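re: the backbone from monday

yeah here it is again, tokenized this time
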């Protein structure tokens, strides 16, 4: 039996226009674009593309920015468009302006379309699929940022069932507002709970009888923080004040290119090489490899630019302790490249024991008879979910190898058979990407 129903009205305000970090995060969540791909496509939209009779046109404003500031002319144009296409109820009483953050340089406007009248539908024939997808995201976000807030009825329902008391909470939409055009994607969930504002309840009234359809007992345990995705890592860098809008994509691409991380189920997982490099650097340079160091250095550089701090003093205060740490590291840091670990495996060329050595892409097996015998092979990979299909050329089993561009399948008959092919999901490499 429904014991009571309580309702309260809440407003949801639209997100501000994109800045570099939020564009990269939202493009990853909605379009599955890596940060580097997002910036490449945004650069094309910014530089200009041929759009019918208009000729070469820059479709968005500068895409490396940390400011949500918008020109008054653009706001007026957006409001006129909203009033004409959605009605006066969707235009807020006063133009929206996001608050300026402490570390914002405000050198450029927010990322927005250069003209709201160039709708995604109008420019679609002139853009590639990825250009149109990103332009649509930027256009919708900007227009929605100038629309009226959504109005929600937050509902709490208490249900009496004998001696038990059950409670359900959720929301119903009274006025859609900006959500008719665009809603910001939610960050990656850390559990399986549905956010309260996304739970929809049917109309209920006090005294109404309800029937139990299912009972789902759940027990929650403390969970470690999930692995970073590209989107959450960019958000963390921004929150900690590390880097500038132009550096987020570079940071992510460097982690991949140097094989410090690999992507599993769309999350960034440190490799053995990445963990080793991190441990060595944190051990010998604890002051520099600290999340606060870069953020504090950014503030110091800003003060130097404003004439509040002397750059020579700043450089001296940094370099003297750094030079001492560098000297100690040169003397005491262990060289993992020279470390050798003996194994029970034997070389199939000369019969000597195989040892584990370090290379550019991590650890591998090498013959202990080097340089007389240069035989090497991969360390045993993790067990596969399904066996790899046989070699198409000779029928022998395929095995997982790792090369310059990641994992691939190679024939075990090498060098007699040199057949290789990309790994497919479920074929020998769990979670591998083609």
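seq for it, each position gets an aa:
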């Amino acid at each position: 039996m429904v014991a009571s129903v309580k309702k309260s009205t809440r407003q949801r305000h639209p997100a501000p226009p994109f800045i570099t970090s939020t564009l990269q995060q939202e493009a990853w969540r909605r379009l599955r674009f890596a940060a580097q791909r997002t910036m490449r496509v945004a650069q094309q939209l910014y530089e200009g593309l041929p759009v019918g009779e208009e000729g070469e046109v820059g479709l968005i404003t500068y895409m490396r920015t940390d400011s949500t500031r918008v020109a008054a002319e653009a706001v007026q144009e957006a409001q006129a468009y909203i009033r004409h296409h959605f009605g006066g109820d969707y235009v807020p009483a006063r133009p929206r302006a996001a608050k300026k953050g402490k570390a914002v340089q405000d050198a450029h406007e927010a990322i927005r379309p250069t003209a709201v009248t160039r709708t995604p539908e109008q420019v679609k024939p002139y853009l590639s699929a990825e250009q149109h997808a990103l332009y649509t995201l930027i256009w919708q976000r900007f227009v929605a940022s100038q629309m009226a807030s959504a109005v929600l009825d937050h509902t709490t329902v208490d249900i009496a069932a004998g001696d038990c008391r059950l409670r359900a909470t959720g929301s119903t939409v009274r006025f859609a507002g900006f959500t008719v055009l665009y809603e910001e994607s939610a960050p990656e969930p850390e559990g399986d709970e549905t956010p309260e504002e996304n739970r929809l309840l049917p109309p209920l009234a006090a005294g109404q009888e309800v029937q139990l359809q299912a009972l789902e007992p759940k027990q929650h345990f403390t969970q470690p923080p999930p692995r970073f995705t590209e989107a959450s890592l960019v958000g963390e860098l921004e929150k900690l004040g590390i880097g500038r809008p132009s550096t987020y994509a570079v940071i992510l691409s460097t982690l991949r290119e140097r094989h410090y991380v690999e992507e599993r189920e769309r999350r960034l997982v440190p490799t053995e090489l990445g963990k080793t490099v991190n441990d060595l650097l944190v051990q010998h340079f604890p002051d520099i490899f600290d999340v606060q160091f870069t953020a504090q250095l950014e503030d110091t550089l800003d003060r130097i630019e404003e004439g509040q701090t002397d750059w020579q003093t700043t450089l001296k205060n940094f370099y003297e302790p750094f030079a001492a740490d560098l000297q100690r590291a040169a003397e005491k840091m262990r060289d993992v490249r020279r470390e050798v670990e003996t194994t029970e495996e034997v070389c199939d060329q000369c019969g000597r024991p195989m040892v584990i050595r370090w290379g550019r892409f991590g650890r591998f097996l090498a013959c202990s008879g080097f340089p007389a015998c240069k035989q090497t092979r991969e360390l045993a990979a993790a067990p596969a979910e399904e066996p790899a299909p046989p070699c198409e050329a000779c029928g022998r089993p395929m095995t997982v190898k790792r090369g310059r561009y990641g994992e691939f399948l190679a024939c075990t008959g090498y060098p007699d058979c040199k057949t290789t092919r990309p790994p497919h999901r479920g074929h020998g490499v769990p979670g591998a990407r083609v």
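Confidence is low (pLDDT under 50) at residues 381-385, 424-434. Residues 311-332 form the longest helix (22 residues).
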